[in-house]
Design goal:
The chain is of the alpha+beta class and about 500 residues long. About 45% of the residues lie in helices and about 15% in strands. It contains 18 helices and 13 strands. It has helices at about 5-20, 55-65, 70-85, 85-95, 115-130, 130-145, 190-195, 200-210, 260-280, 305-315, 335-360, 375-385, 390-400, 415-425, 435-440, 445-455, 460, 485-495, and strands at about 40-45, 100-105, 150-155, 160-165, 170-175, 180-185, 220-225, 225-230, 235, 240-245, 285-290, 320-325, 405-410. β3 (about 150-155) and β4 (about 160-165) form a beta hairpin. α3 runs parallel beside α9 (about 260-280), α5 packs across α16 and α9 packs antiparallel against α11 (about 335-360).
Length: about 500
Amino acid sequence: MKKSDIEQNKSKETNSEQNIPKENKFYVPKNQRFSKSMVLPLWQTLNTKSYSKYTNEQIDNMLKNPYASYKELQSVSNYLWATCPMYQNIIFYHATIMSFDYLLYPEKVNVNNITLENRLINSAKTVKESQVKSIFPTITLRTLLNGETYWYDLSDSNNTIYAEIDSTYCQLAFVDDDNLWRYFVDLSRITVTNLYELPDEIRIAYDNWVKKGKNKQKTEKIIEGYTVTIPDSFYLVGKKGFSLFAHMKKAQHDYPFLASMFTEFNSLEDNKDYFDSYLKENNIKIIHLKIPIDKDTGKPLMDEGIIRAYHESAKEHLPSNVAPMTNPFEVEGIALDKSQQTGINLVEHSKKIVQDSSGISETIFSASTTNGLKYSTTADAVKMYPLLYFYENLINYKIKSQGFRISFLQINHYDRLEWHKQYSANMAVGGLRNQFISTSNIELYDFLMISKMEKLLNFDDYLPVKMSANQMNSDDVVGRKELDAGEKADSTVIVDNYRWLIY
């Protein structure tokens, strides 16, 4: 190999290394060639920020104007997410309570059956590939945690990928005609180290902005037919970008869903730390080494050196929570159970405050009782149902060309079985088959394909359907032979002969 070729290869390797951030030097970007994941097809940049602990007074000041303090409240939320298990449980519970069962229906039915069937199959396939039941709960969790999330749909014919865009770059732009909440990306906040993970559309916009001289001044732009004055660094992300807001307020930014409870969560963790140290300080056992003394003079009968040697020997061999005490006096033990119980009650009191503030029944995280659990979960799910509005708009935009629409049922995982039984009973009086299929925990597209396959392969021949009593006629009945008219008369006479026994 020529020397020039070797130097050229080294130059290429150096350039490729420079394109990879130093903190991620072992990670090789794949230029948007994302692999499909059946578990969690979400692409999220690792959050390496460190969050500080806040006092209740600081949190109270933030909550006086939560929309102005959204960044600080998001920091508090992420700190509690990392340190408070109760906060994690409540966020995860709310985010995963919805079952995301849905109905598909056409906007128009004045088409032939074959066309309508093909449109239904294509729409059902699109919904299945969107993986609403596995992806949307995680998107909901991220939205409740931060109050706002910004996403970009990287899906193609082979992959289903939603990439989360860092909210520090983004802010709400407007709600378009398809009811998608569109957003701006502030290109001036993007750096070369985080550019490589962003979608191609945003990367191209950033490159164009850099070529124009990185202008940050406000300029007039025409957006959706309106002339607006915004910074030149603001780029309106296309239709593949969408955002979700926890409180559904049309503001530039939103704050975490459970921000009003942050002081309770903060106090709970403080009280747990206090109680832990309290137990350690008040649960120390003392070993008394009594020094023998002369009853008349009161002087020790042992030399000071020997007494000290016994004391140090005992101290060296005792556990950390056991302390030796060496003196000639009588020692009386005092139980600390009552004061420890006070500490326990302090933690229980904080937990009760958090539970009451969240509105979630104690039975959700406790196996002690199940009374009222059904109604409690229904009330909790109602808080999440308004967020289905975002997901309906997203899927409806995807299947818009097929002339179909989606409607998510207001059903959660705790009452799905009851609804399924109700829909099953409704079919006997003309109820919707679609509702029964939706609550069967199977995608509509899968149901259509499996049903076609079973009919094509005559599955009924392998597993014949057993008739119930209501479906049988007289010819199918196997049992005692019915008597003819003469035999009936004879049997009546025989019975009458024994009628006197009854009276």
